[in-house]
Amino acid sequence: MGNRGVYKRSDKPIVIYSQPTNPQLLSVTMPETDDPSTGLFKKYLTNNRIFKDREVLRHSYRPQILPHRKPQIDEVASILAPSLRNETPSNILIYGKTGTGKTACVRYVGSELEKASSKMGTLCRIVHLNCEVIDTQYRVLAQIAKCLDVVDEMSSDKTRTHIPMTGWPTDQVYAELKNQLEAGGGVLVIVLDEIDKLVKKSGDDTLYNLTRINADLKSSKVSIIGISNDLSFKDFLDPRVLSSLSEEEIVFPPYNAPQLVDILAQRAEQAFVTGAIAEGVIPLCAALAAQEHGDARRALDLFRISGELADRDEESKQVTEGHVKQAQAKIETDSMIECIATLPTQSKLILYSMLILEQLGQNIFTSGEVSRIYQDIAPSIELDVLTHRRITDLISELNMLGVINTRVVSRGRYGRTKEMWFDANTGKIREVVLKDSRLNGLKDLDVSQMEAKWLKTWFR
Ligand SMILES: Nc1ncnc2c1ncn2[C@@H]1O[C@H](COP(=O)(O)OP(=O)(O)OP(=O)(O)O)[C@@H](O)[C@H]1O
Predict the structure, then answer these.
(1) Contact 46, 35 (CB under 8 A)
(2) CATH, residue 196
(3) Residue finishing a domain among 201, 227, 252
(4) In whole angstroms, what is the distance from residue 150 CA to residue 166 CA?
(5) Is any atom of ligand 1 closer than 6 Å to the C-beta of 212?
(6) Does residue 78 lie in a domain region?
(7) CA-nearest residue, atom 13 of ligand 1
(8) CA separation (Å) from 115 to 22, 51, 122, 128, 142?
(9) Mutate to test the pocket of ligand 1, among 100, 108, 302 (most ligand atoms within 8 A of CB)
(10) So what's the ipTM on this one?
(11) Would you put residue 244 in left (φ > 0), alpha (ψ -120 to 50) or beta?
(12) Tell me, which GO biological process terms does this entry list (predicted)?
C-alpha cells in the first residue's frame, strides 16, 4: 500500500490513497466545502442570481400562452371542433417558416381538444408524429398503433395485437391499425409534423392510404394535420392526395421584432430572477431573430444562451447586451461547425488547404494559392484531384454557406482574382475537418517542411 493522506472533514475522515503522497494532488482533490458530495458544483448550485427556471427557455418546454397566435389557434380549433360531435374534421395542411409556432400551436389545440372531449364524454385522440424520425410508411402506421396502445393502456382490452416496429408486411400493419381504430371508435387526429421529410424519403403512399382510410372505417374517424416549412413537397404528391390533404390550409407568418419582444417578455418572467435582465436585452434578442426570418426558436435560443453566459460570468449581476452579442456569435459558430461537418470530403480538403495557408502566416488567400496547396495534398490522401474550375466552384459554395468570406479584386495586368479569409475560430474548423476519416492522415502533415518545397516550386 502507498502512503495514506487523511483529510478530516466535519466528523467523517476522508481517506485518499496516493503513491507516493503528492501534496499538489491533495490540494486539487479536496473540495473546500462542508458537503463533499456537491463540492465542485456547490457554487453553481447555490448561485442563482440569473435563472429562476431555465427549462422554460428550452425547446422541449410547451408554453400554455402563445402570444400573437390567437387567429391561427382559433382557426385550427374551429376546424377540429366537429370531432367533439363525433364528426370527421377536415384535413389541414399547415405551412410556415421554421420557428413560427406551428408545432406549439397544434400541440396546444390538441391538448385542449382532448381535455374538452374527456369532459364531454366523447372520444377524441391526437397522435403527434415527427416525420423527421418516423419517415417510412411502416413506421408511421406502427407508431400510430403504438400511440393508441399507450392511450388505451388502461382499457380492459388486453387481447389486442401489438404491431412490432419492424418485420410485418405493410399491408398487415395497415389492416391491424384499421382493426384497432375500429375497436377504439371515436375520432383520431394524426399530426404529421415535418410531413415534407416523410414524402421526400418515402413518397406519398402513406398519405394516400391515410387520406383514404375513412372509407374503410365504420365506427371511427381519422383526420390528418400535415405541418411543413417546405411547401415544395407538394410537387411530389399525387393531385388526389394533395387535394384531400389540403382541404384546409393555414399559413403561419413570421414574427416581427415587437411580437418576438412579447414572446420573450412572457417567458422571461418565468425563466429569470427579477431584475436579472438589463433593459436592452429583450429588444436586441428580438431584433436579431427578426432579422433572420422572425424565428421564435432562434430568439429563445439567443435569450437562453445570453443568460447562460451571464450566469457563468461571475462578475456579472445581469444579462447584458454584451452577452447577447456573444451568444449570437456562439450560435453562428456552432451552426457553421455543424454545416462544415456535413460537407463533402473534397470541400473539407479545400478548407484544410486554407488552414495550411493560415498556418503559414497568411490571413487572406487567393484561389490560386488554395488550389496549389490542395493539388499538392489531395494525392497524399488518395483523393481525386479536382480541376481549378471545380475548386473555385466549391470555394463559392463555402462562401455561400458563410464558412469563408470572399471578394474579387483586380490585379492590374494579371487580371482579377478571388481573395478569401476566415471570420470564425479556425481552431474549431480544423478540429471538425480532421474528424473526416479520409482527412485524418493530414493530422501529422509537417507544414514547415512542405513550406520549403512550396516556396521552391511556386516562386521559381
Ligand atoms: N407565439 C409563441 N409564444 C411563445 N412561444 C412560441 C411562440 N411561437 C413559437 N414559440 C416557441 O418557439 C419555439 C419554436 O416553435 P415551434 O416548434 O412551434 O415552431 P415551428 O413553426 O413548428 O418550427 P419548425 O418548422 O422548425 O418545426 C418553441 O420553443 C415554441 O415554444
Answers:
(1) no
(2) 3.40.50.300
(3) 252
(4) 18
(5) no
(6) yes
(7) 297
(8) 64, 32, 10, 16, 25
(9) 100
(10) 0.98
(11) alpha
(12) DNA replication
